[in-house]
C-alpha cells in the first residue's frame, strides 16, 4: 500500500470541527509543525486528517496564512510583513480568540506570534476596567483583593503613566 | 420587566453576547496567555494585564520574551537612570516613542555601574555591589568586597541568573583589569 505522501505536489485533506473538508498542498501544510510531525511519523496515511478543535471559518483563515507564507520566497519578507499586519487588521476578538487557539494547536509559530502581538496591542494603554470589557472577563477580585494587588504593585502605579 | 429586558437585548445582540461569553479569555492555555503577557511591558503588564483578573495575574512571564517576528525585541529600550536622590529609571523606546518612568526606592543611594539583559549592576558605599532587576525587583547581592574598592568601572558578561555570569572591575589608574 503506497504512502499517501509521495511527492511535494501531493495534497492533504483537513477536516474542520464542523465537518468541512479542505484540500491543502503539502508544502502549505508543512507550515504547521503539528502536521509536519504527523507527516514525518507517517501518521498521515489516513485520507482525511481531522482537526476537531478548529472550525471551518478559522481553518480557512489559518490555511490562507499558511499558503501565503509557504508560497512567498524568503526575499519577500517585507511583503509578508505587510500581509501579516493586514491579515489581522479588522479581525474581531472572537475570530482572534479562535485563531490564537488554532495557531497554538497546529503549532504555527509565526501565526501565534502575530496573533499574540495583536491581542497584547489591544491591552496596551487601556485602563484595566476597559480591558475587562473588551475581553468579557469578569472581575473576580474582591475590592480588598484588588486594593492589595494595587498595593503590591504600588511602585508601578505610582511610577508609570 | 421581561418585556423591557427583551427590548434592551434584541436577539441578535444577545446571541453575539452569548457567543462572546463562550470565548473565555481566562480559560486559554497558560502558554498562550504567557505568550501574550510577554509582549506587554512595564505599565501595560503590571497595571493592566495583571489587574484584570486572578487568572491573568498568575500567568507566568516567559523567561526569554523574544518573539522572532516582532519588529523590535522588547529589550531594546533606552534606559536613563537619575540616581542618588531621585531613584528614577526612565525607559524610552525610540521606535514607539514610548516612555515609562519607574521609581525605585530600593535603589536609594546606589550608583548604576552597568546594565544588561534587564539587570542593573549597582554599587552602594565602599563594599557593596549587587544586581537588581527593576521588573521583578529581584536583588542578588555579591559578596562584600573585603577591601575598600575603587573601581573606575564595573561590568558583567551576561545575566546574573546564568552560570556563565562573570563580574569584573577595572582600575584604570593601574592600567590593568581584575
Provide structural commentary.
The complex is a heterodimer of chains A (161) and B (178). Chain A has 161 residues and is mainly α. Chain A contains nine helices and three strands, in the order ββααβααααααα. Chain A has helices at residues 26-29, 33-40, 56-71, 77-88, 93-105, 109-123, 128-135, 143-152, 154-159, and strands at 11-15, 21-25, 48-50. A three-stranded mixed β-sheet of chain A has the order 2-1-3. Chain A is elongated and about 60 Å long. The model of chain A is unreliable at 1-8 (pLDDT under 50). Chain B is an alpha+beta fold. Chain B has five helices and ten strands. In chain B, the strands form three sheets. Chain B has a four-stranded antiparallel β-sheet with strand order 4-5-6-7, with no helix packed on it. A three-stranded antiparallel β-sheet of chain B has the order 1-2-3, with no helix packed on it. The N and C termini of chain B lie far apart (81 Å). In chain B, strand 4 and strand 5 (119-124) form a beta hairpin. Classes of the chains: A mainly alpha (161), B alpha+beta (178). The A-B interface holds A 81, 84, 93-94, 97-98, 100-101, 104, 109-110, 112-114, 116-117, 119-120, 123-128, 131-132, 135-141, 145-146, 149-150, 153, 155-161 and B 19-21, 23, 25-26, 28-29, 31-32, 35-37, 39-40, 42-44, 46-57, 67-71, 99-105, 137.
Amino acid at each position: 500500500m503506497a504512502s499517501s505522501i509521495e511527492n511535494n505536489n501531493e495534497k492533504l485533506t483537513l477536516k474542520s470541527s464542523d465537518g468541512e473538508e479542505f484540500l491543502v498542498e503539502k508544502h502549505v501544510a508543512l507550515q504547521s509543525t503539528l502536521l509536519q510531525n504527523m507527516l514525518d511519523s507517517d501518521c498521515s496515511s489516513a485520507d482525511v486528517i481531522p482537526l476537531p478543535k478548529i472550525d471551518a471559518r478559522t481553518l480557512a483563515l489559518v490555511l490562507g496564512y499558511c499558503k501565503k507564507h509557504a508560497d512567498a520566497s524568503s526575499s519577500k519578507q517585507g511583503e509578508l510583513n505587510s500581509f501579516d499586519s493586514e491579515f489581522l487588521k479588522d479581525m474581531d476578538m472572537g475570530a482572534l480568540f479562535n485563531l490564537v487557539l488554532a495557531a497554538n494547536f497546529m503549532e504555527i509559530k509565526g501565526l501565534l506570534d502575530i496573533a499574540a502581538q495583536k491581542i497584547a496591542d489591544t491591552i496596551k494603554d487601556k485602563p484595566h476596567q476597559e480591558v475587562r470589557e473588551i475581553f468579557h472577563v469578569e472581575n473576580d477580585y474582591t475590592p480588598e483583593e484588588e486594593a492589595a494587588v494595587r498595593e503590591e504593585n504600588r511602585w508601578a502605579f505610582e511610577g508609570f503613566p | 420587566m421581561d418585556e423591557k429586558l427583551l427590548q434592551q437585548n434584541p436577539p441578535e445582540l444577545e446571541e453575539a453576547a452569548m457567543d462572546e461569553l463562550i470565548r473565555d479569555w481566562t480559560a486559554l492555555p497558560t502558554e498562550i496567555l504567557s505568550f501574550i503577557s510577554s509582549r506587554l511591558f512595564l505599565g501595560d503588564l503590571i497595571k493592566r494585564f495583571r489587574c484584570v483578573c486572578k487568572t491573568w495575574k498568575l500567568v507566568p512571564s516567559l523567561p526569554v520574551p523574544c518573539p522572532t517576528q516582532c519588529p523590535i525585541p522588547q529589550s531594546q529600550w533606552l534606559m536613563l537612570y537619575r540616581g542618588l536622590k531621585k531613584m528614577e529609571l526612565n525607559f524610552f523606546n525610540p521606535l514607539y516613542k514610548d516612555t515609562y518612568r519607574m521609581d525605585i526606592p530600593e535603589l536609594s543611594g546606589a550608583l548604576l555601574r552597568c546594565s544588561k539583559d534587564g539587570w542593573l549592576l549597582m554599587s552602594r558605599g565602599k563594599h557593596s555591589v549587587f544586581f537588581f532587576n527593576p521588573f521583578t525587583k529581584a536583588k542578588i547581592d555579591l559578596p562584600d568586597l573585603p577591601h575598600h574598592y575603587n573601581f573606575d568601572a564595573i561590568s558583567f558578561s551576561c545575566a546574573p541568573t546564568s552560570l556563565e555570569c562573570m563580574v569584573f572591575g577595572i582600575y584604570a589608574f593601574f592600567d590593568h583589569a581584575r
